[in-house]
Amino acid sequence: MKTAILLFAVFVMVALPKQSDAQLLKKLKDKVNKAIAPASTTTTDQTTGSSTTTDATGKPTNKGGGGLKNTPPPDVNEQISDAEKAHLAAQYSDARYSLQQALIGIEIQLGREMLKSLPDPVAGLAKDTTQDKVVSAQWGWSNLTIQRVYTDKKDKQLTVTIGNNGLYSGFVTMYFNNAYGVQANADNQNMKQVKVKGNKAIIQYDDSKGYTLIVPIGQASMIVWEAINFADETEVMNAANTFDIDGIKKQMGEQ
């Protein structure tokens, strides 16, 4: 659309008789305003005075709602009981579903216990429990993700993620299989291999994201620290060393 407007402007300037600059600018302005008009429109009922906003397709635009309420994690004992009943009744699909729910409940309990065991503070940063996350996408540790944020409430922050992290899992596999080329400039590497409490790890630096430190703790699980506005890699390593990595491995069943 913008390209068409520019071509129109060239046509007006070259092919048509000369006009004043003010007239030409006004025509162009009208064309631009028409081209970038909002996709939604608001109409007012003259009888009731109520207004309705619609998008480009004519559908109403949602103005609000009650949202979704938080629900407690599945009750493990209840789900196991339901699975037994469904199995006895030869309702195998229902039995499988209840067992899946029971495993999700166990994982969420595990995640919450693990959050309680994490250190506080870390690198002078206090934990922000409002950002705690325990996510079980299905069942099995490869689908469990536990996350905590430490912050000074200004511009310094450390986020630790435990469990499956699809964003980094492929990257870690390639690196340790020597399929990932490391920056050759040894004086200014943006990624290198290190060790955290005897565990092989990768640390990476990016000007826009800060430091990322990754410790694999199983075939699909890892611990990832994302450090924003840390002074240097030493400060990041010191922060990671305050975590009980062996304890995390044990809780995750990786040791």
Fold and architecture overview:
This protein is of the alpha+beta class. It folds into two domains: 71-117, no CATH class; 120-251, no CATH class. The protein contains seven helices and ten strands. It has helices spanning 2-15, 21-35, 76-88, 92-117, 166-176, 233-240, 245-251; strands at residues 41-44, 51-54, 126-127, 133-136, 144-151, 157-163, 191-196, 199-206, 210-216, 222-228. The strands form two sheets. Strands 3, 4, 5, 6, 7, 8, 9 and 10 form an eight-stranded antiparallel sheet that branches. Strands 1-2 form a two-stranded antiparallel sheet. The longest helix is centred in the middle third of the chain and has 26 residues, at 92-117. The N and C termini lie far apart (60 Å). Residues 1-19 have low confidence and may be disordered.
Main features:
255 residues, alpha+beta, 2 domains, eight-stranded antiparallel beta sheet, two-stranded antiparallel ribbon, globular
Structure summary:
The chain has 255 residues and is of the alpha+beta class.
